[in-house]
Amino acid sequence: MTTFTTRTVEYPADGLTMIGHLALPAGVDRRPAVLLGPEGMGLSDVERRRADALAELGYIALAFDLHGGRYLGDPEEMLARCMPLLADPDRMRSIGHAALDVLRTEPRTDPDRIAAVGYGTGGAIALELGRDGVNLRAIGTVNATTTGRPGEAARIRCPVWAGVGSEDPIMPPAQRNAFTAEMQAAGVDWRLAVYGGALHAFHHPPVGHPVVPGVGYHPRHAQRAWRDVVDLLAECLPVTEDLGHDPR
């Protein structure tokens, strides 16, 4: 474990001024980096803490913004913004690329060692970066078994890990099956973890505002999903390149 520092970063995307959270481990050396995407409500302290935790593990981490510095606690407002976004792969890619450019611009980021991890809408954006052929070491998603335009998954150049709750009505079995069929047909190195009994956003601690139906926190699976993300990074994006052995 290592100490870290943080700072906010502003950058343009989707016609807005985005406000991201950048966490950097102690030191001056170049490090692997993780682009971290939030649920549809937008960037919150939950994602900021995750970025900080990744920095403690030795990664440069950027938790990126979706809504120009706003957190959309009103479900209707969130859906009104996110549903058109999720239906527009090019728009998702532009938001992802803008954040990725910020991460790559950080002098301590090793541009050849970047992974994308996202939750919900942020996970869909991570997948679209892969479908756009971005050079990533790994893609990890939770609650984002989204499919893309036909054939574009063949451009994914890294392993893909996806986690989803078995009782998630927003990502039901038919959606999961379509996602895995897309990955398999494209020859992607993919994995799917189904967390038994979990709803949508099972990883996100309870919030003090209304949420869409089918959302619920599952503490045990939240911890398991985080460990699975960290394991994915340890395998595909080790903090040091010679850390390829199994420490267990």
Structure description:
With 248 residues, the protein is α/β, with parallel strands linked by helices. The protein has six helices and eight strands, in the order βββαβααβαββαβα. The protein has helices spanning 45-56, 75-86, 89-105, 121-131, 173-185, 219-236, and strands spanning 4-13, 16-25, 31-37, 60-63, 109-119, 138-142, 160-165, 190-195. The protein has an eight-stranded mixed β-sheet, with helices on both faces. A hairpin with a 2-residue loop joins strand 1 and strand 2 (16-25). Helix 3 (89-105) crosses helix 4 (121-131). The protein starts with a strand and ends in a 12-residue tail after the last helix. The model is unreliable at 242-248 (pLDDT under 50).
Low-confidence stretches: 242-248
Which series of helices and strands comes N to C? EEEHEHHEHEEHEH
Per the principal axes of the C-alpha atoms, what is the gross shape? globular
Main sheet, how many strands, which sense, barrel?
8 strands, mixed
Structural class: alpha/beta
User: What is the radius of gyration?
Assistant: 17 Å
What is the beta-strand fraction? 15-25%
Q: How helical, in percent, are the residues?
A: 25-40%
Number of strands: 8
